[in-house]
Amino acid sequence: MSEAVLPAVRSRAQASETLAAWALTLPAAIAYLLMLLLPTLATALLAFTDFELGLPGFNWIGLDNFTEMLGDRGFAQSLRNTLVYVGLVAPGSIAGALALALAIEAGSRGRTLFRAVFFLPVVSLTVAMAAAWQYLLHPTIGPLNALLREIGVSGPAWLSSSDTVLLSLAGIGIWENLGFNLVLFLAGLTAIPRELYAAAAVDGVPSAWERFRLVTWPLLGPTTLFVLTITMIRSVRVFDTVAVLTQGGPNKASAVLLYTMYEEGFTYFRIGYSAAITLVFLGIVLALMWLQTRVLDKRVHYA
Fold it and tell me: Where is the ABC transmembrane type-1 domain (predicted)?
């Protein structure tokens, strides 16, 4: 083949590869456009309107929806509840998962069984698990209050009292996130070279706590950052258990951002206001991700 023909052949080959790449990418690009990008843009536009389901049209009202939020006591309550929920679930599920992962990794038997048992909530249907929790926390026939009565303690109405409903939902949230975080921590612990522990023993590190502080914890930094990010996002997104167990009650004591957004949009049909709450929710998620990646990532040791 002459040298004059080679560039043309290479050009056709490159064009063919480019066409094949676009053909493979196109379905995912179309799905991303139709299922994520366009709905997000539509939500952003609706947030600046007074659109309501059932009405023939809508008006552009600028920042009125966001101004209304500043004086909306229901929105303020749901925002506080969401922050309290995240503040309870994130550290509780992370610390609990890390403790369980260390205990399982240190044991010699039953690792697979314990992994399966603790991972069960992750693969279970949330609605089914919520129904089970509704029975467990029932004030009269629930096993938890029955156990408390056996020791002479009068159990509260866990899901129908303003004082305990958010704590109860947070406990369920910790239980839900525990197995997922456990598997991630177990993967991180498996990746730590055993030689480092032997070297620590040679250097005179006697106690298990010192080995954890000097070897395990620093090398678990990337895993911990990922677990923290995922857990925070999953906690902010809480909706299923609230919708099934409490519907935001009693007296808005368990209303969270996503449930308030759903209620405004599909109970009161105020789609514009619901879209504005959605933008605030997305802003909170993005702010959490930025804070974790910018601030905490600088303190993480990557091997």
Answer: 79-292
